[in-house]
């Protein structure tokens, strides 16, 4: 079934903000930075950057890759249409691929963490006190309209993103960057509220656009939050070529792209054109791929990979299937419970719902034994808590001992298991006891509280999930029914679905917390109390915990690797013991199907998503004959 189900909104809009900024930073980037007054081509939080001064290109690209052809892709996420080009506002859905148009002052590599290299900036200077970072803009950098990129444009971009006209979570995300100061035409300084080793990274990753975007011929300006199909003015390698009906968009490579020879761009952007075709559902998308309508597909559903991604095109070699290893932190995926609903405010209720999910049965019967149960918010990384809390973790947890479950001070909770000698029956009996303690008792044909109200809730999903989730939901519904709980599975149009999530108008939904190789400010937006009240934030569950907030503060303020590790482990313990999400599953490979004639570098990146990796680093072989 689904390996990675992202809660998708327009690129650049929190909660997908962290994922979008990852595009600007480069996959795998986390915290910054060596506190030095010396300007540098790159900065690293721990040790030295992998790539030395004067490096020619990243190891995971082919500097001699042939250029040319039109790459055609389908929906990169669950979005089925678009109604704007502006990816930085809350309302509406931006066209896929908008990140091709924008760049940032610095970018990361996909084979290391906590390192950033200059992109629009040709050097970076971090103040000795850590309270500001200054970027010098490469004099060659220019926008698609031919104008040079100036410090004024960078300041305009930052101020706009922090203003009420942008998605409201930007102001939260960049809250500790107090202001951008234009030093001169090519120099911009960002000042920080406090010493935080991540803030230079956040400043370096701010997407930059021209101050002329939205200015009409008569000199008047269209308000930023009203920009729809006005072509963005960015500095990226591609331009919008054409679009149609909110379902298809084509980008063409900018022949005057300023940065093609930069070490961080060599071997990339090999396609002359990139087209996205958005299909109405997963079935239509898969059949279109088999019919040759687009070139590559990432398969998220194990059953489809085994049973549906087959047939004549695969047999004769026109279509090829391959599993690529991935080392990404997988993050948390699961059924998120909206604590704004009274029924979910008792942790015993949330734990009972976790006990009702029979992962082992699902993995055998539906997933072809291709998945592993998620047991951490930072699974597959060094940030996952293990064993008993360390002294550093206890220093963070002890002040909240009276508020926290005593179990937090032990190992992480083990996810329910139904393999013998364990059983679903034993798990459901435990769940029933927890529900009774919380005041939910079975009578008159249903589980009811003291007021006589039935325990009934809705699992909201967008219509693209209708092809994959019903078997999972049917199993979960059957288990919950044994407890007297009614679960209603509802699908709706993506636009309606996204609107309801932005307004927190749901009981439960399927969530994939954006991956992060190194936790940082993104966790404030995902788990902090302040973000629980910000429309469109990543804190879908509505977590409001003073203990979590205190640990988050320690995490973003960590000055050493040991401090960061302790804070992340402590956060993992508190979140897992809070049962805010019913965890699902993850895979250690990417399943990718593609047309014959496509090629990729011999050295694979470590931290990547095929949806970004293919358009950025693949190419057509000369024999492919793509036009």
TrEMBL record:
One of its GO terms (cellular component) is ATP-binding cassette (ABC) transporter complex. Residues 118-530 form the Solute-binding protein family domain. The keyword Signal applies. Keywords: Signal. Pfam families: SBP_bac_5 (PF00496). GO terms for biological process: microcin transport; peptide transport. InterPro entries: Peptide/Ni-bd, SBP_5, SBP_5_dom. One of its GO terms (molecular function) is peptide transmembrane transporter activity. The keyword Transcription regulation does not apply. This is Microcin C transport system substrate-binding protein.
